[in-house]
Amino acid sequence: MATDSSIVTIYDLKNEGKPLTCHRIDAREFLAHPLGQWSTSPDGKKVAIGDAKGKESGDDSGEAMRFKAMTNKALKVLAEKTFIPGYQRMNKTELVEALLEDEKAD
Q1: Domain boundary at 57, 81, 97, which?
Q2: Residue 18 bridge partners (DSSP)
């Protein structure tokens, strides 16, 4: 089951409605700024953070949390030990996903 991660998107009205993804607490600060540059809607001026929709994130297993807490170097060593092809060119997110897939395969 997914949970609300408190990540919201607000829009920069002075920059053609460009989106900014940030934490809900930070969004409140942006929306409260006296310049009125930010909105929860790209169409117009809405300043209520309740209007902003949160993104849902997937559940993390204990293994996923353990992998995410590791450094990139440690993940590459683990990937090498588990014979994951192309691990040298992977970033941290790709390494975590590959290691989780390897765990599921076992």
Answers
A1: 57
A2: 12
Token digits of residue 13: 């009205």
Task: Assess whether 18 and 31 both reside in one domain.
Answer: yes
Whether residues 8 and 51 fall in one domain: yes
Q: Which residues pair with 75 in a beta bridge?
A: none
pLDDT for 53 equals 60
Residues in the chain with pLDDT < 50? 1
Q: What is the pLDDT of residues 63-83, one digit of tens each?
A: 888 888 889 999 999 999 999
Give helix 62-69 / helix 92-105 axis angle, nearest 10°.
150
Domain that holds residue 76: 62-105
DSSP state for residue 87 in the 8-state scheme: G
User: Whose CA is closest to 54, among 21, 19, 31?
Assistant: 21
Amino acid letter, 84: I
**Side-chain-facing half-sphere of 59: CA atoms under 13 Å:** 4
SS3 37: coil
Nearest to 96 by CA among 87, 105, 47: 87
What's the pTM? 0.45
